[in-house]
């Protein structure tokens, strides 16, 4: 049996059940296919520079200790996020000859690598030395090839996949009854971190315009409110717009799926997005998705699988939301179902294990 070590600076815990949940889901998927997978991860978001530094140093030492003890048993390592996580896999290859795969999720390229030339150089080295690079979206493929000099044949476009056992169609009225949502309400739903980069303020501005056309419309937000400064800014924006919007902290995935089923429209107004997995999950449930024409969303919602709008443009967002409410489309839903079929867990497991096989056989070794 192959043994894989997964490194990630995001992984859920009992206290933080949604922190990097997509990584845990993939680990459990691999284990269900018979792979032996060890995880060496950070499962605590943490706060403050001192706490963060201590957390990362402890993780790095724990990871190096793991590699020392298991260097002869591990077939390969898989790093989620190029930097800083990929540093561990790169060290494993340099010190012990262990090949590695790295998954680029977006923020590691769009934000982290832009922080300094040193980080950009390290990111480039990690990606170029990897035996395989997985990117979660088509735009990221061009980025790692054009900006970071990775050979095209070494880059694989593959999402984290959607769990269709959890995110599946459910009768809307049944979902609304369980959540005590009025049947006549036009529910717009957002799920994601409560930060400016997710377009939450744009959504508040757009929602005011939607309510003029649809007084029965309601907006519900589900997401972490750890950014106190942003939440204060959001509260002021709500007051100035005179709109009532409900919010709750992150939920377990089964509960999120229920909220998506209850919604008339799912909205993801991100300023940048590597893939937009939550949008795919909404498509799997059968709810119309309105998203910004950025990153992976451009490809995911293209060809009328959803409704694309301009980023950072509340007017365009409001028009897209009104279109979704006023003109439901069977054709759009059919195209969305076809997109979902390309990203099921069975498809992703087959593709990922094939990459692992190639790497462990040395087909992409450098």
Automatic annotation (TrEMBL):
Residues 22-165 form the Glycosyltransferase subfamily 4-like N-terminal domain. Gene3D superfamilies: Glycogen Phosphorylase B. InterPro entries: Glyco_trans_1, Glyco_trans_4-like_N, Glycosyltransferase_grp1. One of its GO terms (molecular function) is glycosyltransferase activity. Residues 172-338 form the Glycosyl transferase family domain. It holds the Pfam family Glyco_transf_4. This is LPS biosynthesis protein RfbU.
């Amino acid at each position: 049996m192959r043994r894989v070590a997964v490194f990630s600076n995001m992984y859920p815990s009992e206290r933080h059940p949604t922190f990097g949940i997509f990584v845990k889901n993939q680990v459990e998927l691999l284990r269900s296919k018979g792979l032996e997978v060890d995880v060496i991860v950070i499962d605590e978001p943490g706060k403050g520079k001192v706490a963060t530094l201590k957390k990362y140093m402890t993780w790095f030492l724990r990871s190096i200790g793991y590699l020392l003890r298991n260097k002869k048993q591990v077939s390969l390592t898989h790093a989620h996020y190029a930097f800083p996580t990929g540093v561990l896999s790169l060290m494993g290859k340099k010190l012990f000859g262990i090949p590695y795969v790295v998954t680029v999720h977006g923020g590691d390229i769009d934000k982290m690598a832009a922080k300094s030339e040193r980080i950009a150089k390290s990111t480039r080295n990690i990606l170029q030395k990897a035996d395989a690079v997985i990117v979660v979206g088509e735009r990221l493929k061009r980025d790692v090839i054009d900006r970071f000099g990775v050979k095209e044949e070494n880059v694989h476009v593959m999402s984290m996949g959607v769990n269709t056992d959890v995110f599946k169609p459910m009768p809307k009225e049944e979902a609304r009854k369980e959540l005590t949502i009025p049947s006549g309400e036009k529910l717009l739903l957002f799920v994601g971190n409560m930060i400016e980069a997710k377009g939450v303020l744009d959504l508040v501005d757009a929602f005011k315009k939607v309510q003029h056309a649809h007084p029965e419309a309601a907006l519900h937000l589900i997401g972490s409110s750890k950014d106190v400064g942003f939440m204060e800014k959001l509260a002021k924006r709500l007051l100035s717009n005179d709109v009532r919007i409900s919010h709750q902290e992150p939920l377990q995935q089964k509960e999120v799926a229920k909220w998506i089923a209850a919604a008339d429209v799912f909205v993801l107004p991100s300023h940048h997005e590597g893939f937009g997995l939550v949008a795919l999950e909404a498509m799997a449930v059968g709810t119309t998705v309105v998203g910004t024409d950025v990153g992976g969303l451009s490809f995911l919602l293209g060809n009328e699988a959803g409704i694309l709008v301009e980023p950072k443009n509340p007017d365009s967002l409001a028009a897209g939301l009104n279109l979704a409410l006023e003109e439901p489309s069977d054709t759009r839903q059919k195209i969305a179902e076809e997109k979902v079929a390309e990203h099921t867990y069975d498809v992703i497991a087959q593709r990922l294990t094939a990459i692992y096989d190639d790497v462990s056989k040395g087909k992409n070794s450098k």
